[in-house]
Amino acid sequence: MITKTLSPELLHKMNAYWRAANYLSVGQIYLYDNPLLKEPLKLSHVKPLVVGHWGTTPGQNFIYVHLNRVIKKYDLNMFYIAGPGHGGPALVGNTYLEGSYSEIYPDISQDEAGMKKLFKQFSFPGGISSHVAPTTPGSIHEGGELGYSLSHAFGAVFDNPDLIVACIIGDGEAETGPLATAWQSNKFLDPITDGAVLPILHLNGYKISNPTVLARIEHEELEQFLRGCGWTPYFVEGDEPEEMHQLMASTMEKAIEDIRQFQSQARSQNNTTRRRWPMIVLRSPKGWTGPKVVDGLQVEGTFRAHQVPLLVDGEHPEHVQQLESWMKSYKAEELFDEQGTLIPELAELAPKGNRRMGANPHANGGILLRDLHMPDFHIHAVNVPSPGAIEGQDTLVLGKFLRDVAKLNQDQRNFRVFGPDETLSNLLGAVFEVTSRQWDAREVNNDEFLAPAGRVLDSMLSEHQCEGWLEGYLLTGRHGLFNSYEAFIRIVDSMFSQHAKWLKVCLELPWRRKIASLNYLLASHVWQQDHNGFTHQDPGFLDHVINKKADIVRVYLPPDANCLLSVFDHCLRSRNYVNVVVAGKHPLPQWLTMDAAVVHCTEGIGIWQWASNDQNAEPDVVMACCGDTPTLEILAAVSILRQHLPDLKIRVVNVVDLMKLQPKSEHPHGLSDIDYDSLFTKDKHIIFNFHGYPTLVHRLTYRRTNQNLHVRGYKEEGTITTAFDMRVQNDIDRFHLVQDVVDRLPQLGAKGAYLKQMMQDKLIEHKHYIDKHGQDMPEIRNWKWSNHN
Q: What is the CB-side half-sphere exposure of residue 309 using CA atoms within 13 A?
């Protein structure tokens, strides 16, 4: 027995609104002209190249109209995340119907002329994409790549207690690793301080040409799976529109009532017991209301409805009539007036103002963004009496700064630290002095730092979820950072790419306000994974990052703790960037006072005069370094050279901001050719010790005048060994660097030859020592900087 939640009049109107959304969706996919079909449809009215995805679209239109109803009934603060790929026609069409689209794009007016432009622009050169994108009002989720909708939804509702995110999950999308893991996000939702996510699993049965797994398992098995993930699933299944409208209306109300009840009980009784939040499973035909049969083959309810269900072109002229019949089945003349405007009795079904999902401020997070209250990072400065005189653990120092950031912003509740169970390992544990890990599942004795609410989300061992949560958090107007082992940030390569692309497009949209930057802290890096071995040694994320637009990406490799503090203070204040910071956690020499560090980081690159001896003459060689460990080894090599070849003129250049190496024409941080040449000279040999793969530096500098560049870096050599032996295996150690200098400067003659032999002897001595003792030689472990003046 279906509960008749909707009156006959409201049912009629909602079905008509759904037809209007479907009509607009089909028009976007196919039509170039004649938007209201006021004349018989001709092939010339159809786009020369028809591109789009119909299969998921009518189901999403169905969901949207029902969400509109409950938003109005309950005055909900809600927006929509479209997980199914390429469902663009639905979101564009619905935001057009509610008016938010035309407010942002006035030329796409709510009349026949505007409708024609709406149709033409879709998947058309110079127009909009076939998936939900930054150009789509009300969206924070790029629909091109599948898997992240649910994690984005949870990121959006953290610290947004009044917000509900309706997250539509495609059944193909549900097969991806990130989405399959994201079901567990409900164990991290605090019913008091956070909002709610309403997942709607859209089972339409097919992907591009295959069935979907969740649509083919038994009802009981699917229900058990979802309940096992901690949800209370409600099922809406069928294909008869009137029955489906009534069923969806009653089910939607039940889900909203559950959410409101859970939140009310938790907030009035301060009860944080984990709830089994509601979700909806909508099972409807793929390509619902579209062509049932085309050329003798079933289309509706099959994989053939996934993309363009009806080919309309010069080779299929007979399909023009079938397209016209399909579009006329929606009876547009009953939905739009003669001018092409949605009739008032249907327009009134949409929410008003910011309650429209296309106009919700949370989906344009920069509108809500508030600056962080920032502590003075100088108070955490490491006292450096002279370069290299003391050792320090860079991320341990940073952790105290982040603790203060968390504390200062507790009332604003707009800053979080994300990471896959690595906050303590990366030595950021000081944050737990002022906050906890958010965790709403069961607790047992000996758990540490767990609480229903907290500023840290690191209790889920999934880089995908941490990245997705943080992106959702940033896109809705908050701040945060993602700390990860360097090697395993590669897991989210593609997610980073999607976010960077999102930011790039947003810069071209005046109505999209800038959001806080996506900040990565990559610790436990390649040169500190000697104990974990080869699997944990991969600095390649840097190569991936610099492929993105220069307006978006920034890469920093601070050489010590004071530089790291200065860099991170800058990153947390920045907007609309992706900032990648690589820092170490093991004890290493500290080089710069805080005042010197601030100057050095502001410049991003510079000569370290205290390590150089070429002040009164041209250098014989430039020793350059980027990264904490490469810097240590360059300075150790310089110390050896200055001891044994005191007449050799050496210039030491340290790079903090990697993008300084690019020409200014390529990156806004890049050095001009004049400035680059003043640092590196036009013709002297440059021995460059780099944190990552050597080819990256060559890529950044290939246009420079001075091509006497010899880069040492990670060359995919590693195992479980000592820290120094990792450097030796990759030729970034001091002994190999000294040999490099001798090889490049034949004028050193016999002195150079003897020094090179001495370095070879040291390498052999090192190998014998670690094989016998299992640790590095004392002269390595106890080395201190000396310029041998």
A: 30
